[in-house]
Design goal:
Distance between the termini: 12 Å
Mean pLDDT: 87
Shape: flat
Order of helices and strands: HHHHEEHEEHHEEHEHHEEE
Low-confidence stretches: 1-14
Structural class: alpha+beta
Length: about 325
């Protein structure tokens, strides 16, 4: 039996879609000042959402699933970044879960920074960080202590100065239990990390570093690794905090073709499919599909202004 219209409207309430779609509007306005083509792509992103309304053959449960939509795939689009974040989360979770079937592993979050730089010099400083990180992971100390890493680049605006950037790495490190046992001499203190990073950077100042051990709380979390995934994935997908149009335009030039995520060691396989990630920002979790769902309807929602309110409105239903 097809649900009544009021029931369908309740089922199709899409708060997350609306929230992330609204966040694209400031990016559209910035792009509109210097790249109208990109602005139009961002404006159209997630504008029309086709859902499948399904009923389970046995339980009679009714659910909706996103079937298709247009995504602009721009690196600064909040809507696309929301979908990317979910896909990265799934990729990381799946890889870590597979690793832990054979090994007992521990995880550490490491943050590496450099001095703030001018927006015009952001690309040069990112390249310095990338080369320096490569030098650091090739050291005997790193290779002896660390089994794998997932490195994420983040660049934020320095408060009260929109022309100064704060580039830094957030890194998930994988170690085994012997890392914390003194006699194995694997443990790296925060002071040692700072010295290793300074030497790799080849600078005359002590860069700020931060280290924290990841503690899995399985009492409040069905799977302890979920917190690891959520913590790391949020960094490369944040909205840009660059406000001025001319600075945003410069930022797009500075980070063009710059890769945000890199992995090595035990975590290298995480990114095997990342180059094709943007090919499909619709299907997030393909593991939970089965043949017990009957299609009831296809339903189109469109994002538009109606009664002075921007929202997704039901536009079409096809049985």
């Amino acid at each position: 039996m097809i649900p009544k219209k009021t029931e369908i409207e309740d089922i199709l309430e899409e708060k997350n879609f609306k929230k992330h779609k609204l966040r694209t509007l400031p990016i559209y306005e910035k792009y509109a000042n210097f790249n109208l083509k990109k602005a139009c792509f961002v404006l159209d992103c997630g504008n029309e959402l086709w859902f499948n309304l399904k009923e389970h053959r046995e339980t009679k449960e009714i659910k909706k699933s996103l079937d298709s939509m247009f995504t602009c795939k721009d690196r600064f689009c909040p809507f696309c970044n929301w979908r990317r974040q979910m896909k990265y989360s799934k990729m990381i979770y799946t890889h870590i879960k597979a690793l832990e079937e054979d090994k007992k592993l521990r995880y550490i979050f490491l943050t590496l920074t450099i001095k703030n730089c001018k927006l015009d010099d952001l690309r040069t400083n990112i390249q310095l960080m990338q080369k320096s990180f490569k030098r650091m992971i090739e050291t005997v100390k790193f290779e002896k202590s660390i089994l794998g890493f997932l490195r994420v680049l983040e660049f934020t605006v320095q408060k009260n100065d929109n022309t100064m950037m704060h580039p830094h790495f957030h890194i998930l490190l994988v170690v085994d239990n012997t890392y914390f046992i003194p006699r194995y001499e694997k443990y790296i203190t925060i002071k040692e990390w700072s010295k290793m990073w300074q030497k790799a950077l080849r600078v005359d100042y002590a860069p700020v570093c931060n280290v924290k051990v990841v503690w899995s709380n399985k009492k409040n979390n069905k799977d302890g690794n979920a917190s690891i995934v959520a913590e790391l994935c949020k960094y490369p997908m944040k909205d840009t905090d660059v406000e001025k149009v001319e600075d945003f335009e410069e930022l797009t030039k500075q980070v063009k073709n710059v890769r945000n995520i890199n992995a090595g060691g035990l975590l290298k396989g995480i990114l095997q499919k990342s180059n094709k990630l943007d090919d499909d920002l619709v299907n997030i979790d393909e593991d939970n599909k089965d043949d017990l769902w009957i299609m009831l309807k296809k339903i189109l929602y469109k994002f538009e202004l109606k009664n002075k309110r921007l929202d997704y409105y039901l536009k079409k239903e096809k049985v």
